[in-house]
Design brief:
340 residues, Uridine Diphospho-n-acetylenolpyruvylglucosamine Reductase, domain 3, 10 helices, 13 strands, Delta24(24-1) sterol reductase activity, membrane
């Protein structure tokens, strides 16, 4: 009986499978180690005095750009691999400013407010706050997202039907403008979704709200998108967190969540994700509130973008400051040029 050698495609498939196993064995621990150090909550605090020194450093860099003749646009010196973007980041030809602001400045429990620098990541912030029994109104779920990115970019979550987008919950911003200043009230309504095109964000103040120990979740299966929208509109005011997943035109799963420290049925606690779940089937409802957000990519013209988005506060700041226009590209141009 003749014995044939395995085909090249079979050998390649076996090799690919072995490589996949090797990658899974090594990548898993590497990711764990990276997350441990990247999301560590140690040394995540600064003082008002140290923060002021760091802001002065940003101002000094902006003033050097001014003294150098305002040549070219400015941008942060953050490396491209740190950008949460689907596009390649190209900063060649830009005046790069080091903005090393990644810490918590103050957690004021008495007045229930948080003052934090823009580079603080959500994974770090959430752990620190929940350990103290607090959270913030809008908590995006990806740990590596930063406070500044969620404000200058787009950030919302399952509590946004109450609080709006992430930036809507912020009570004050500190920003270094193209003139090197840090105070200008007109900028307050222009910062959100500006993509860093009106100044360098240096700190924000966000209210604190009490955090329960658990999240009680009710799952409701709905058999159509219209019924899901109807149910969410009926129930969104009654729940702190509302979310839906559309699997098909006739399969929608809604989730209604509320924080609690006293679960009604301790036997149903999921200790992995620390949630208590209840379930309803064949519900007849769901909630929907739409938010416009400039995220990931743009397929509009400049005119179409300004018709769709409320850019009046942003345009007011840009039009009133020639320094701002010289220092930063317009938000549309920045999104289209993939400059971060």
């Amino acid at each position: 009986m003749a014995i044939h050698q395995p085909s090249r495609s079979i050998l390649r498939s076996i090799l690919d499978f072995v490589m996949l196993i090797v990658l899974l064995i090594f990548i898993g621990p590497c990711v764990k180690i990276f997350n441990y150090f990247n999301m560590s909550t140690r040394n995540c605090y600064t003082t008002h005095k140290r923060h002021a020194k760091k802001v002065e450093n940003v101002q000094a860099q902006v003033r050097r750009w001014i003294e150098g003749g305002r040549k070219g646009h400015m941008c942060t010196a953050k490396p491209g691999w740190k950008s949460f973007s689907i596009h390649k980041v190209d900063k060649r030809g830009f005046y790069k400013v080091e903005v090393d602001l990644n810490d918590i400045i103050e957690i004021d429990v008495e007045n229930k407010r948080l003052i934090v620098e823009p580079g603080m990541m959500m994974g770090q912030l959430t752990k620190i706050l929940t350990d103290k029994g607090f959270t913030i109104p809008v908590v995006p779920e990806l740990d590596s997202l930063t406070v500044g990115g969620l404000i200058c970019g787009a950030g919302l979550e399952t509590s946004s039907h109450h609080y709006g987008v992430f930036a809507d919950a912020v009570t004050s911003f500190e920003l270094v403008t193209a003139d090197g200043d840090t105070e200008n009230s007109d900028y307050f309504y222009a910062v959100s979704h500006s993509y860093g095109t009106i100044g360098f964000l240096t700190s924000v103040t966000i209210p604190l709200i009490p955090a329960g120990k658990y999240m009680q979740i009710e799952y409701v299966y709905v058999d159509s998108i219209p019924n899901a929208v109807k149910l969410m509109q009926q129930r969104n005011k009654n729940h702190a967190y509302v979310e839906g997943i559309i699997y098909s035109m006739t399969d929608v799963m809604l989730m209604f969540g509320d924080m609690t420290s006293n679960p009604s049925d301790p036997s149903r606690i999921n200790y992995i994700n620390r949630c208590e779940a209840s379930e309803s089937v064949n519900g007849e409802d769901a909630s929907c509130l739409w938010f416009l957000g400039l995220y990931a990519d743009v397929f509009l013209s400049n005119e179409e973008l300004r018709q769709m988005f409320y850019t009046i506060p942003y345009d007011k700041v840009r039009n009133a400051s020639s320094s701002c226009r010289k220092a930063f590209p317009d938000v549309f141009d920045k999104a289209m040029r993939r400059i971060k």
